[in-house]
User: Fold this.
Amino acid sequence: MSTTINTSRRDFLKHSTLAGGGLIVGIPLMGLSQTASGAEKQNLAPNAILQITSENIVNFYLPRSEMGQGVYTGLTTLLAEELDVSPSKVTIHQTGSDDEYANPEFGMQITGGSTSIKAHFLPIRQLAANARLVIRQAAAKQLNVSLETIQTQDGKIFIQGKTLAYGEFVDVASTLDFPEDTPLKLEKDFKYIGKYNQRLDAQAKSTGTAEFGLDVDFDGLQKAAIKHCPVYGGLVQSFDDSAAKNMAGVKAIVAIHNGVAVVAEHYYQAKNALAKIEVQWQLPEKLSSFSTHSMDANNGMGLFENALKQEGDNAHNEGDSEAIKQTNKVISAQYWAPYLAHATMEPMNCTVKIENGKVDVWVGSQSPGMAKNIAALFADVAKDDVTVHSTFLGGGFGRRSASDFVAEATAIAKASNLPVQLTWSREDDTQHDLYRPASLAKFDIGLNQDGTINSWHVKRVGPNIMPYMIDEAVDAIAPGFMPNTMVDWLSKRGYGLFDGWVVDPSSVEGLFEDYDSPNKQVNHVTIDPGLPLGFWRSVGHSYSGFFKESMMDEVAVDQKQDAVAYRLKHLKNNPRLAHVLKLVAEKSGWGKPLANDHFHGLATHTSFGSCVAQVAEISVSESKIQVHKVTCVIDCGTAVNPEIIKAQMEGGIIFGLTAALHGEITLKDGAVEQTNFHTYPMLRMNESPEFDVIVVQSNEAPTGVGEPGLPPIAAAVANGVFAATGRRLRSLPLKLA
Amino acid sequence: MLRFTLNGQLVEVDAPSDTPLLWVIRDHLKLKGSKFGCGMGLCGACSMLIDGQSTRTCILPAAAIANKSVTTIEGLGNPELTSAVQQAWIDSSVPQCGYCQSGQIISATALLTNNPNPSDKEIDHAMSGNICRCGTYPRIKAAIKQAAHNIQTGQGKLQAVQYFEPTESAQEAQS
Assistant:
């Protein structure tokens, strides 16, 4: 692993008026090459990353959002390691929105794509290493000793038998030139990376004291509830609020861009009044004619099936696409995955106060920068007049990367001229999500005489996410708004929107990359009924992991070969994936007999740079699939907090099991049919399996953790069901009856 | 006027009697530890102890708790003084997003009150009313066992915060 950093990336020192004073350091996480001049230094405090006060308080301004995935602990651990301070001694502050807090992966202030540890592993350590050096330099100067004699440990300077706190030297340190490119610690010297196993937010979250968006409250804050059109994109034609407007506590009833909202003193008053309002909607034509259950050849499933006949656009081509015609045997199969909602436990909500042209927004968001821009647009103020206050997120999973609820809250605050907290009901949350796209895929796998794969052909049919995230978030909701960073973000993600975008990579990711095949062809047919789409934990991998790994199982079964051995034959160019596969086979006792009619199913998948293999131990009784145990191996490079990585594997697998066993969003006349947890059920404690999670020891650069646990599990279960029953389930959710 | 005991103290609230208890606690009394999740009693995020039983308060009219004793997450312990269940949650790194955990801890506390040494099946049964979307179930199970062990060996209590009993005048007001 490299411990050097691009020398063009400069940290810069910020003297400022930030309360507490001391040593204050900002970080251009994007690698901007700039140094603050004297005048600028005075005004840079709001985007500080690190502050060490003369009272020896270490303040860390966390640039990413904590939604359960563990950045609150993980990024703090990176800082603490190089600063030589225990992570538990760092005071963590959630930052608002500022360009300097941009995620280096995206160029925007976004938490997603399992990027946080990967993207900050070097920049945050570099900042902390530089800060520690400047403190040592200050100590050398102040005590008139040589730098080499000054050691540090646990936030203290050790010199000639004396122990002095960092805080003693920060005032002098803040007058020195800030060092750059200080050598980072070697792996063997790590005290916290790979070793620190607590969660720094566990105490607040176990005592009810962690603040989520919904917990924000202040004098004069009013509560709002909203009625959306049952079909996405519908507009308010007219509404009758005569029965609602005189109800207890009601302060205002307003129509906004996509619905009607009641503002009241208390939330339940707003809810009660909302129920009495009759709205006439102007329905969108296309989506309101779509029903997933329709038997019509051009509706529902028929729409997708028909599209499969088209050739589509080529998304990837390798070798000879004609070679399949000469192969010994072609095995074909078709798979389906439905639309899915995110169902975060905390329903969407946002608090907005507009006063004297200034806007304050309190929100748990995966993209506070976008929230800021959206609020500015809907409040009709300049972006600089918006302040975002970040809270903990009661679940993200991609849902909170969108800002639709920020737009609504701002619009309601502006129209009512009141500070409001908009709270969605669970029904709003289930029925007005940005959904995981439904997908149909067909594989044609051509085999050589010896049974190995010669040609891997796959075609995916379905809608694409990016048009919604870009067009809806940028053009429709925010016309004319297209910051340069967004352009950078798009080009970095490789969507090529501006140079002939053909296929959204997230639509086909994971369908073809993992296994060796001299010839590969991936085609895509876009079919979009118009239900809005968003990033859903593991994005395209959430279905491609199921499709690809079920297909691989089918081929191995057809060739009467062991699932592990057959996969390994096709992983000659992918030693990392081969390793996790071998390890999961060993740890799970793959191939050994199981007691009590239990069966094993296996799957392996690469996503977000990490390799994961899973074995599910299942049984089937009276058409009910039960998952007893999951053995999971992950290689995510350097493990910063192994316990959080294990927790993310458990959580990703349980998230994936909900989708595998229960998850399905259906539409009737364009409206989502599911409403709450009785019709959109979640996996509960009694269905949760036992776990054995193994994190591969590695010194490679860290890769993703929040999402990679999810993609293999549905296939592992389905492959187990095949072993148990001989029935191949090719549709999600998995149903035997 | 609603009158009940909240975390050991007698409280009076001016809210309509059909207001769900959750909103009386969150909106009127400003205790934010208990969460809104579904509004139908399906997810358990709003769980509170009512006379020791884990109860879904998002659908419970406030009138139903008149003169009863309500304990929220804040009534079990606080960051300085955690209950045995809360401490086990911290030690086992249970929370992820954390939103459901107040309700989980309330249900676990009710379970251990009635059954100091629950089996896996009994834990499954008692905890299946509380959804965790992050999937912390295996850690919840481990933490419940840890808390049970700690309580039995004298290392912690189900309720860490000790309240004064309601005063005589308060009891009079109650009757």
The two ends of chain B are 14 Å apart (CA to CA). The first helix of chain B runs from residue 21 to 28. The beta strands of chain B are 2-6, 9-13, 48-50, 53-55, 69-71. Chain B touches chain A through 61 residues (CB under 8 Å).
